[in-house]
Design goal:
homodimer, about 350 residues, alpha/beta, 434 Repressor (Amino-terminal Domain), Rossmann fold, 3 domains, 6-stranded parallel beta sheet, 6-stranded mixed beta sheet, 12 strands, about 15% strand, DNA-binding, Lambda_DNA-bd_dom_sf (chains A, B), transcription cis-regulatory region binding (chains A, B), transcription (chains A, B), LacI family transcriptional regulator (chains A, B)
DNA sequence: CTGAAAGCGCTAACAA
DNA sequence: TTGTTAGCGCTTTCAG
């Protein structure tokens, strides 16, 4: 795995010194012209700029980071890079951090604490200036490592009374409760949850169930499916639910794709939605609005989560005091469409 | 944007020297114990290991990379991180590189040459040991920069007679031609293409059209939609096609999601698929097999592309000669299901 | 098998 | 406004 490889003999890349010589200034002046242009008179700045272009100079950010103790890198650890749920957040992180001169370094933890630990070790080795995590359930090791290294940390997409540092998210329990009430308000009584194997989805399901009990409804049927949630899982789940003796008239799915599967199977079996069964998804992906029937779902402002997380990291790096960057609850909303 | 921030005063992270002192050896021995364990006797190795754990030492990879001229980082530039089409490739890259001790650094170019240029500059600053690109259409600036820096480069998901360096992909023209013949073989004659705004999709569409002409069929109708392709776009496209005077009996969509939209609209309008219209997608996403009717689509082994690309980068870094790492055509297959 | 010296490329800190 | 010096943390190189 870590063989003693030959030292690479690629041609040495141009350095500040090359640029400095060509521009007839010192290395330090080149550095300043690039990083703090306002501290260098326009004439010198232009000479440096010309030399940079002539030599195709690209600063070595490893060296910059090592010397200045700022890597200009922020790491984000996401359960699944492919998941459309987080892509708005990743976009917003990239954009907001980019505008402030930071690069986003993406890692995928794969929904498990074990993967997260290993990934975190690798990530910390690159000395990012801050870390954004999706979720609040981390191993003790992860929490200690992060709390110990004094780096700005934002946990996202969830809430907790005991964040590692900063927090931007919403209450999954509230989502589960709200959706249950939403379905109950329409007179649905025999409820079910189709849920992917993911801690946050599980908490939504749990609160959904607790609320049903609280409302005096029969205990909802729970169908668990593997991650990632697919259209096929949704179809299968509905088939399973239809075999249930008590029957079902309202289903909360832990993703829009699962819900689309439920809609697909319902159409295939000529089961009326929303007539006989109400279906609610989660995520408000683009497909939700255009499904047939249009999918009622839970909308979360993923872009805002990304933006706020980025601003918090940047603020903390710039030295903002902790209290200004308290936890933020971005909330959620139920988008009522045709399906439920 | 680049303000003179205060030097971060986080507590100094532990360094090799701290570990060395604790283990009673020199810094060099610590380094060797970690990077070339076989060159250090077990006894010393264990003492070092113990000291590493006691101090929570995490090597500074910026310093490692700077000194050794190996960042152990490979960059991948993808048009859209959220796109499910590339997620298998990204997974395989991560896994294959990870097994060889490399980290993947992901960047999103956003389907445009302009974005790619800027991103590339940022990426090169981090001094990756290799670069994986999706696509073969790059600006002259990008090509020169990459060719000039002597870094291993793999272009993927396409073929070209003039690669920058290495190449792992398949022919989009062949895909377009094959799908056209596939539909024609079933007696479909009034064909159409629904295509996202993306160069590779455009080439598939072009070859599809050329093949139709070659087969003596009427010129296919082309519907272009914005990226990213959504279910809604697919529905809209079918509505548009149904208004076409000549009628349509076979549709090639540039993504499975678009195709699902076509299926959805067809079901809504009670248009028989495959009876009246045949539908073919692209990508063989999980949803394809479970759509109703099951979606005929083009399967590409994205995981293999990622694996082979990673192996080529690793091989080149390890000093393998260029000829061994020639271009690879991974091909594709049409997966016939119910829809067309 | 182990260590000492040197320096990767850059910028903080200070001096002029 | 500009330059000089030193050193970030590590590993290459060479000597023991």
């Amino acid at each position: 795995m870590t063989q003693p490889l030959p030292t690479p003999d690629r041609q040495r890349a141009t350095t500040v010194l090359d640029v400095a010589r060509l521009a007839g200034v010192s290395a330090m002046t080149v550095s300043r012209a690039l990083n703090q242009p306002q501290r260098v008179p326009p004439a010198t700045r232009q000479r440096v700029q010309a030399a940079v272009e002539a030599t195709h100079y690209v600063p070595n950010l490893l060296a910059c980071g090592l010397r200045s103790r700022r890597s200009r890198l922020v790491a984000a650890i996401v359960p699944a890079l492919g998941s459309p749920v987080f892509s708005e957040t990743v976009q917003a992180l990239t954009a907001t951090l980019g505008a402030a001169g930071y690069h986003l370094m993406l890692g995928q933890s794969g929904y498990g604490a074990a993967g997260e630990d290993a990934l975190l070790q690798a990530v910390i080795g690159r000395r990012p200036d801050g870390i954004v995590l999706v979720g609040v359930d981390h191993s003790r090791q992860t929490r200690e490592r992060l709390a110990g290294c004094g780096m700005p940390v934002v946990e996202t997409w969830d809430l907790t009374p005991t964040p590692i540092d900063m927090l931007v998210g919403f209450s999954h329990a509230d989502v589960g409760a709200a959706v249950c009430r939403f379905l109950a308000d329409q007179g649905r009584r025999r409820l079910a949850v189709v849920s992917g194997a993911d801690g946050r989805a599980a908490r939504r399901a749990q609160a959904f169930t607790a609320t049903a009990e609280h409302l005096g409804l029969p205990a909802p049927v729970l169908v668990e499916v593997d991650a990632p949630t697919t259209l096929g899982h949704g179809r299968q789940a509905l088939r399973q639910l239809l075999g249930h003796p008590a029957g079902v008239d309202g289903i909360f799915c832990s993703s829009d794709m699962l819900a689309l599967g439920v809609l697909t199977e319902a159409a295939h079996q000529r089961i009326a939605v929303p007539g006989r069964i109400g279906v609610v998804g989660f995520g408000d992906q683009p497909l939700a609005a255009d499904a047939e029937p249009a999918l009622t779902t839970v909308r979360v402002d993923g872009a805002r989560i990304g933006r706020e997380a980025a601003l918090r990291v940047i603020g903390r790096i710039a030295g903002a005091p902790a209290p200004e960057l308290a936890a933020l609850d971005v909330g959620f909303s139920i988008v009522p469409r045709r399906s439920g």
